[in-house]
Amino acid sequence: MSTVKNRSELLFIYDIRDGNPNGDPIDENKPRVDEETGVNLVTDVRLKRTIRDYLHDFKGLEIFVREIVYDEENGYIQDGKRRAKDFGEDSERILSECIDIRLFGGVIPLERRKQKRQKEEGEGSSKGDSITYTGPVQFKMGRSLHRVALKHIKGTGAFASGEGTKHATFREEYVLPYSLILFYGIINENAAKHTGLTEEDVRLLLEGMWNGTKSLISRTKAGQVPRLLLKVNYSKENYHIGDLDRMIKLASEIQHEAIRGPEDFLLDISELVSRLRSEKDSIRDLELCFDRRLRFIKDGSEFSMEKLKDATGIDVKPIAF
Question: Any residues with CB less than 8 A from the CB of 19 and at least 6 apart, and which?
């Protein structure tokens, strides 16, 4: 499979009901919320973790960045240097075997003599005792398309609070009744040359985003649903539109904090469709997957995503998993 030759932009929308899409460990594991705008924030690290876990747990692929316990008795987990030794500190082997490094890049700790040889061969940029690969796939921080309501829930546990007591333990958690989250990403064909990112890797990336989001079955993330995945593939060299995420707006007749599902809003994609159409000579094609429960409007009228090709003048290919 050949390496990626064309630049692409990604838009990914998913939602969650009565859960915590990305807790902040230094703030009681509360969902991250922009205090000024009331918008829910989800880090790119969280999305990459979703993708990594899916590719490893469901597709059986090797990933470099994962938690591995090497001392069961003491619970010690590997650091980067120990992980690199699993591959003989061979960066070519790591790139060949670990799809997450080909996708997202990473810092690979190496011995000085190997690092010197690989720097001379132009395999990546080096600093100290490591070699760094810039990932072809990068995501901005995800943001909800509306203000969210943060709910504090208290309850009782199943066990006593201590030996010989009659009182059960108490538990507390913070959840969001609803959040519709939008991620923007880019696939850079120049960086793809250095990590050897292939079209098959990108297909697995898309599958990891969509199916990985559905496959999160932890208590705080059960019920996440992917709603829209759009991939814009460019034909013009070293070019992309940028800021596609800013071209989608949520329209609702109810207060944002009261939104509880797709039935409570419409997504206005007027600006997005208009911009894609104006740039059609620079775009090779679009790839699309969407949930039909999501409703759209364009120029004030309801819009069917089946008409995206007619509206933009660009060939649209379905993404199938």
Answer: 175, 176, 220, 221, 222, 223, 224
